[in-house]
Amino acid sequence: QVQLVESGGGLVHPGGSLKLSCTAYGFTIDQYAMSWYRQIPGANREFVASISRTGGSIDSADQVKGRFAISRDNAQNTVYLQMNSLKAEDTALYFCKARGVGRPTYWGQGTQVTVSS
Fold first, then answer.
1. What is the rounded distance in angstroms from the CA atom of residue 117 to the CA atom of residue 106?
2. In a 3-state reduction of DSSP, which class is residue 71?
3. SS3 (DSSP) at 46
4. How far is CA 105 from the centre of its chain?
5. Cys staple from 64: which of 3, 68, 85, 93, with CB 3.0 to 4.6 Å?
6. How far apart are CA 112 and CA 1, in angstroms?
C-alpha cells in the first residue's frame, strides 16, 4: 500500500525543538521532490520547506528560515524536518508531500505539533 507516514509531533515549550519524520511505504522517494506543509483549523495548508530528489536544492518559507531544516535519507526512504526555536505560531498539523514528474502526488495524514507553555 502506497502511503506516507509522519511522526515526531507533540507538545513542546516555546523555544524548544522537535524533529519530524516522514517515511514512505510502497514507493521509493528517490524519484520525488519532498515537501513539508502545515495547516491550522480554518486556514489553507501552507508551505514550510522542500527538498529536491538528491537534496541539492532546498527551499523554505520566510517564517521558518533559520529555524527549520529539511533533510532526506533516500536509503531510509525518509524525509525529516528539524524544528528549532519553536514559537506558538508554529502550532499546526504538519504534512509531508511527495511530488514526482509524471508521477502521482502523495500526502501523508499529518502529525500534530503544539507549541505552548
1. 34
2. strand
3. strand
4. 15
5. 68
6. 23
